[in-house]
């Protein structure tokens, strides 16, 4: 190879092969590395090119991209810093030239196996930090000169920041991806379906980072349903993971039957016990579908909102510290009646907080945004459409809405003839009878009677084909009429058990008639209710 | 949410089964089988604590009768715990079963009843 003036030749090569193309730094890491290999190979007319990146934790160089010696990457070659050819380049941060590989300290057997005769390598350094090693090889003995070194160093100098940038970005992307998946998997897969309410929820990630916001809907015993909103302070995988633990903790305390205030207090104790500097805000409400009573409590969280046809109101909350903030934090409970058709709306601060805008204005803007919504889905859609800026959110957002479904004046339902329908029927019935003005004892007795009548219909159902039965109910002049109609032919009650079922119905109602037709059997039950 | 939960505890001479939730034709047999299956032969009896039961239907009453019969066959006794305000009493009253065998108002009362019982024959 003829000797040439180093710098001129190098500059010529640099420009002709676009080794320092600024466009390189825009590429994702894998493409950037692949492109660099090609350009270096062409610029220096070499047989092999390899890039090893420095893993600071293990103090090793990891083969990351290679051309001509792809095995390096495939086999995941790792070279300890300080040892061998690349290791010494990294440790001493100087270029190394090996004219004759056979008689040199080369650690990596692949280089020899490939028949590489000569090697030239340079460190990749960004702002004084070693990030890796770039080396080239020739299968025929070659005296790499000053000009070759200049080209390789130039390539290294321009490539190193691009690699570092792409690597950091890839790490961030990866973390973002992982936390998004984690976040998604920690939120409820589907919302609980509870008789008497309809629910909807949203989780909106922030532009850049995932956060620790969550929502939950929990079916509770005795016709009650719990609604949760929460926000773990902080961002990233850590916040998402803590969110998962807090959601589980709150869910567990809730199904144990604790009220909203006590449930939040127990979650607070749980956060305290973690011994981490963890903190979260949350609101928890329990709605009783039989009585339409709503109990709620908050821990450092923004006040819930109630949406009704007449307008939207922000609920009163007693200020309570966030979960994990102070020992023995107390979360006082509030109670109100969530009227038929009204909606409870819970949200996290990302929905209403805007830079330079007072928080109260943000909450007012939310009240305006959701006004006019008739369903939980509608309320979520209004809030997202009207409050989320087009460029996305700075903070993540969770929202959940629950509506007290209006109770119809008359009951006309067709239900699957399966035993598990009975619990559903009882919840529906207690709500409906309450609304019709029946008092507690009347509700209890009529519920038992109708549940027995439905059990009869379910036993009559033709197996194994899917079957249904009908339940109708209406109130006229202080008298409740309930009918249960099935498609099966009437069978005399069998054994002690079913006889008892019918005697229960007769004992609980004023009048019971059994109509048997070719189409099926209809049980008509009547009972007067005491005027209020 | 499952309709009912059964918590089994072993006292010195009895098995105490506390049921929480609702018992109807969808789960009555399972609840009964769980309690009978957990009862050791050497126990004098079973205390079925219904104080946290919100609903009991005729299928549940039928299963309780069945439990009593199978325990009797093993020389064991069944005592129900039903507090005076329990909704279970509504179902029993409507079914015309005012006293389905031995009934206590609380678990400790049931334990005392069991201890003061005369020993079974032999």
Q: Can I get a quick summary?
A:
The complex is a heterodimer of chains A (532) and B (122). Chain A is of the alpha+beta class and 532 residues long.
Task: Give the SSE map.
The complex is a heterodimer of chains A (532) and B (122).
Chain A: H1 6-17, H2 29-44, E1 48-55, E2 60-67, H3 71-74, E3 78-80, H4 84-92, E4 96-98, H5 109-113, E5 118-126, E6 129-138, H6 146-186, E7 197-204, E8 211-220, E9 224-235, H7 236-255, H8 260-273, E10 280-288, E11 293-299, E12 305-308, E13 311-314, E14 334-337, E15 343-347, H9 359-370, H10 376-387, E16 397-404, E17 411-416, H11 421-435, H12 440-460, E18 468-476, E19 479-486, H13 495-508, E20 511-516, E21 521-528
Helix pairs in contact in A: 1-2, 1-6, 2-6, 6-7, 7-8, 9-10, 11-12, 12-13
Chain B: E1 4-10, E2 14-23, H1 28-38, E3 45-56, H2 58-73, E4 77-81, H3 87-94, E5 102-104, H4 107-115
Parallel strand pairs in B: 2-3, 3-4, 4-5
Antiparallel strand pairs in B: 1-2
Features:
heterodimer; A: 532 residues; alpha+beta; Beta-Lactamase; Phosphatase 2c, domain 1; Heat Shock Protein 90; 3 domains; 5-stranded antiparallel beta sheet; 13 helices; 21 strands; 37% helix; elongated; disordered N terminus; B: 122 residues; alpha/beta; Transcription Regulator spoIIAA; 4 helices; 5 strands; 30% strand
């Amino acid at each position: 190879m003829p000797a040439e003036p180093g710098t001129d030749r190098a500059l010529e090569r640099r420009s002709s092969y676009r080794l320092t193309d600024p466009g390189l730094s825009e590429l994702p890491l894998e493409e950037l590395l692949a492109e660099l290999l090609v350009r270096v190979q062409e610029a220096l007319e070499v047989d092999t090119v390899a890039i090893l990146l420095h893993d600071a934790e293990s103090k090793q160089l990891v083969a990351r991209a290679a051309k001509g010696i792809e095995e390096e990457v495939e086999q995941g070659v790792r070279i300890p810093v300080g040892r061998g050819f690349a290791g010494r380049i990294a440790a001493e941060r100087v270029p190394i030239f090996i004219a004759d590989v056979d008689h040199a300290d080369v650690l990596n057997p692949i280089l020899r196996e490939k028949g590489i005769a000569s090697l030239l390598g340079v460190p990749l350094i960004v702002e004084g930090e070693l990030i890796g090693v770039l080396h080239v090889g020739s299968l025929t003995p070659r005296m790499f000169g000053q000009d070759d070194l200049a080209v390789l160093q130039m390539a290294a100098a321009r490539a190193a920041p691009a690699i570092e940038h792409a690597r950091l970005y890839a790490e961030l992307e990866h973390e973002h991806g992982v936390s998004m998946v984690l976040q998604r998997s920690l939120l409820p897969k589907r919302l609980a379906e509870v008789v008497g309410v309809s629910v909807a929820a949203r989780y909106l990630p922030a532009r850049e980072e995932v956060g620790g916001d969550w929502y939950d809907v929990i079916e509770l015993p005795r016709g009650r349903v719990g609604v949760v909103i929460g926000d773990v302070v902080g961002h990233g995988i850590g916040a998402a993971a803590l969110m998962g633990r807090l959601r589980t903790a709150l869910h567990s305390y809730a199904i144990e039957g604790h009220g909203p205030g006590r449930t939040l207090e127990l979650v607070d104790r749980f956060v305290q016990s973690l011994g981490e500097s963890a903190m979260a805000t949350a609101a928890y409400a329990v709605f009783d579908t039989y009585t339409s009573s709503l109990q709620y409590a908050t821990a450092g969280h923004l006040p819930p909102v109630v949406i009704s046809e007449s307008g939207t109101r922000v609920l009163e909350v007693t200020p309570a510290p966030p979960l994990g903030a102070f020992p023995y934090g107390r979360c006082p409970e509030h109670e109100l009646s969530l009227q038929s058709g009204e909606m409870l709306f819970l949200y996290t601060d990302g929905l209403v907080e805007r830079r330079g805008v007072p928080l109260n204005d943000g909450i007012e803007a939310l009240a305006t945004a959701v006004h006019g919504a008739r369903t939980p889905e509608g309320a979520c859609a209004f809030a997202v459409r009207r409050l989320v800026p087009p460029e996305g959110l700075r903070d993540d957002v969770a929202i959940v809405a629950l509506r007290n479904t209006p109770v119809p004046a008359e009951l006309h339902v067709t239900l699957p003839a399966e035993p598990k329908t009975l619990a559903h029927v009882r919840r529906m019935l207690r709500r409906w009878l309450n609304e019709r003005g029946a008092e507690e004892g009347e509700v209890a007795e009529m519920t038992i009677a109708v549940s027995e009548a439905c059990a009869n219909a379910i036993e009559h159902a033709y197996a194994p084909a899917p079957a249904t039965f009908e339940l109708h109910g209406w109130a006229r002049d202080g008298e409740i009429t309930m009918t249960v109609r099935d498609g099966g032919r009437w069978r005399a009650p069998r054994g002690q058990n079913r006889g008892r079922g019918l005697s229960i119905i007769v004992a609980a109602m004023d009048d019971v008639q059994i109509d048997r037709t070719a189409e099926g059997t209809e049980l008509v039950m009547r009972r007067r209710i005491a005027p209020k | 949410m499952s309709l009912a939960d059964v918590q089994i505890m072993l006292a010195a001479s009895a098995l105490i089964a506390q049921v929480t939730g609702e018992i109807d034709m969808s789960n009555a047999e399972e609840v009964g089988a769980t309690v009978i299956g957990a009862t050791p032969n050497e126990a004098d009896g079973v205390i079925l604590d219904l104080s946290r039961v919100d609903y009991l239907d005729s299928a549940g009453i039928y299963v309780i009768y069945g439990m009593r019969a199978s325990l009797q066959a093993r020389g064991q006794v069944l005592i129900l715990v039903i507090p005076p305000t329990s909704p279970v009493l509504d179902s029993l009253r409507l079914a015309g079963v005012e006293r389905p065998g031995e009934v206590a108002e609380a678990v400790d009362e049931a334990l005392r009843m069991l201890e003061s019982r005369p020993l079974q024959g032999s």
